[in-house]
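Why should sequence recovery work at all? Because a backbone constrains its sequence more than one might expect. Tight turns favour small or flexible residues, buried strands favour hydrophobic ones, and helices have their own preferences. The token representation captures these environments compactly. In the example below, the structure is given first.
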């Protein structure tokens, strides 16, 4: 199925074809995405999802293109699920779907071979679909299915007005959509497709039936070998030069790909897809299809997506984006929603600034952000309602403010209120980082606070289990993966305790795809992430496996074993499994997996910190590279 960065399959059935999903992003938060047979199974699937206010306000405009080939007989290449049936069944004509780097489909219909390629234009809400038909004469029709809605939910038929333009049509429905072709003739003939079904949304307990508008069709005569293109765009009113656009995008992706070790090339396009424009700067989308840019996720992801790949200007821009949103020492949790309900995002910001400096030696950025960094320390050492420093110098925070923040009916599933083990590990690490950065730019710094935090932190040791309490005040002995972050912080725990933590986490939480969020021996453990929103939120941090946690796990594993050959071998084995995973999303790593074998994929098909932490850990640790003063290691 896979060779290098190339991924290919020939689905034997409809159900086999919809198991694999592809996504190509446009650098704005928009994208094109569907399955290996171009059958949409999600409300989020479509050939043009446009970010109207990058990277937010994403609108699904072009749902799909239905291809009809008329030669010795009529062939339909599309696939739609309706109540009780799939029609047409174009997957029967699909010879191969491949991704390298763009989605490519090869069909054989009678004596005619049809090749289709989909790509997006970076920095534009523009999708290009290229066709080449060869082998016999006849004609081909392309019928667009249109909607205009938030990409979050399926809906009824959109009210669309159209005006014909040179080369196609201008569709108006809350926003402008231009459908154009370089060679195919556009024919206005309005119709509607009712009761399209999105099976994945049904399984997720969400709206799953939709009606789409068909404004007409593009038609072209076939003779020998015929090539033509369809463009869907909110930006372009006239047909562009397709080959030039394609060459620019291929060159851009090839340059990014050239910066990676061979083992990571499969993840190159996914890593790039998360980096998006926000205003005049850059940000990082937390995951596709549905997440906005989240502060915590962006700060954890920046190192693997941008620093190990040498994209230092983009990294600096991301830091500036989030620094600009900071309020009284608190980094935004979700930029799209302008929410600040997080206790750890600001501490991860300090880690990210230090990581950036470790790679670039950019003292000017440290000076630029120094007051912001001080505001964070002042906030955490103060006494606000959501976060305050106790008399033992440890941080107390309110419920659902850590990364385990799922709620059901307003009730936190995993409250973790009090003193959380990873928050206080990050607090200690951040104070040590501030000490180091103060020396770099010649600022005074009091080292006593970090020593008091270290002393107070020893209360987290649970001698009965040989690991850390997950929280104090109240004391919670649940075996969770948060403690592995503390084990990766140098100097906070003794080597013997760190090694014991790694052993417990390995025994209770490690899977081939990351760490479980709760020990299977705990009566609250949920081994399956499935069902409607309530069921999934209940399981989100109660046993579900998160790939991003493999980053701090490998940091700790290698550290407590002195980076031995054996531990490096184990790290590579774990990382290869994740890099080469065969989950739903092609050439990426998803948000999470089931806690129970066979560890089915769940959540977003492509998650920033999943991809980033695997790339970072492979680049910094598994290959034996020495990285000076890297954040929490």
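From this structural description, the recovered sequence reads:
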């Amino acid at each position: 199925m896979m060779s290098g960065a190339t991924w290919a399959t020939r689905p034997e059935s409809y159900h086999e074809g919809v198991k694999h999903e592809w996504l190509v992003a446009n650098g704005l938060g928009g994208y094109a995405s569907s399955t290996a047979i171009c059958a949409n199974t999600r409300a989020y699937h479509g050939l043009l999802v446009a970010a109207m206010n990058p990277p937010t306000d994403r609108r699904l405009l072009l749902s799909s293109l239905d291809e009809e080939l008329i030669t010795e007989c009529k062939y339909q290449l599309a696939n739609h699920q309706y109540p009780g049936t799939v029609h047409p069944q174009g997957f029967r004509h699909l010879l191969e779907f491949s991704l390298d780097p763009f989605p490519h489909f090869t069909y054989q219909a009678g004596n005619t071979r049809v090749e289709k390629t989909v790509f997006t234009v970076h920095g534009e809400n523009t999708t290009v679909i290229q066709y080449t038909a060869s082998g016999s004469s006849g004609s081909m029709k392309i019928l667009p299915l249109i909607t205009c809605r938030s990409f979050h939910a399926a809906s009824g038929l959109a009210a669309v007005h159209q005006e014909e333009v040179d080369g196609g049509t201008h569709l108006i429905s809350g926003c402008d959509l231009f459908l154009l072709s370089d060679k195919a003739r556009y024919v206005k003939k309005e119709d509607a497709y009712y009761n399209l079904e999105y099976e994945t949304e049904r399984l997720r307990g969400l709206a799953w039936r939709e009606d789409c508008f068909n404004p007409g069709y593009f038609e072209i005569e076939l003779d020998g070998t015929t090539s033509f293109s369809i463009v869907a765009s909110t930006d372009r009113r006239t047909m562009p030069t397709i080959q030039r656009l394609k060459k620019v995008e291929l060159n851009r992706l090839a340059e990014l790909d050239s910066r990676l070790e061979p083992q990571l090339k499969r993840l190159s396009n996914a890593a790039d897809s998360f980096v998006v424009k926000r205003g005049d700067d850059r940000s990082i989308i937390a995951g596709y299809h549905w997440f906005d840019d989240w502060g915590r996720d962006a700060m954890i992801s920046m190192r693997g997506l941008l620093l190990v790949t040498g994209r230092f200007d983009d990294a600096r821009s991301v830091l500036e984006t989030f620094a600009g949103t900071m309020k009284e020492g608190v980094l935004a949790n979700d930029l799209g929603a302008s929410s600040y309900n997080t206790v750890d995002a600001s501490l991860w910001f300090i880690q990210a600034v230090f990581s950036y400096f470790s790679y670039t030696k950019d003292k000017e950025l440290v000076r630029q952000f120094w007051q912001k960094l001080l505001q964070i320390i002042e906030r955490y050492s103060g006494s606000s309602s959501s976060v305050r420093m106790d008399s033992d110098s440890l941080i107390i925070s309110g419920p659902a403010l850590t990364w385990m923040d799922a709620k059901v009916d307003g009730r936190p599933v995993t409250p973790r209120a009090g003193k959380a083990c990873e928050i206080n590990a990050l607090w200690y690490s951040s104070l040590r980082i501030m000490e180091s950065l103060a020396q770099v730019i010649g600022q005074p710094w009091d080292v006593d606070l970090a020593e008091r935090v270290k002393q107070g932190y020893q209360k987290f040791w649970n001698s009965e289990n040989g690991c850390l309490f997950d929280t104090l005040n109240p004391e919670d002995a649940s075996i969770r993966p948060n403690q592995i972050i503390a084990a990766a912080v140098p100097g906070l725990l003794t080597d013997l305790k760190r090694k014991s933590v790694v052993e417990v986490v390995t025994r209770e939480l490690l899977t081939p795809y990351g760490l479980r969020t709760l020990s299977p021996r705990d009566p609250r453990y949920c081994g399956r992430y499935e069902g409607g929103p309530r069921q999934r939120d209940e399981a989100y941090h109660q046993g579900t496996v998160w790939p991003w946690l493999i980053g701090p796990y490998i940091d700790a594993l290698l550290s407590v074993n002195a980076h031995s050959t054996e531990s490096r071998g184990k790290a590579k084995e774990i990382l290869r499994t994740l890099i080469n995973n065969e989950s739903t999303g092609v050439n990426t790593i998803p948000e999470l997996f089931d806690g129970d074998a066979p560890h089915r994929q769940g959540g977003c098909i492509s998650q920033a910190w999943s991809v980033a932490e695997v790339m970072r850990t492979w680049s910094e640790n598994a290959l034996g590279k020495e990285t000076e003063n890297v954040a929490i290691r």
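A few observations help interpret the result. Confidence is low (pLDDT under 50) at residues 626-633.
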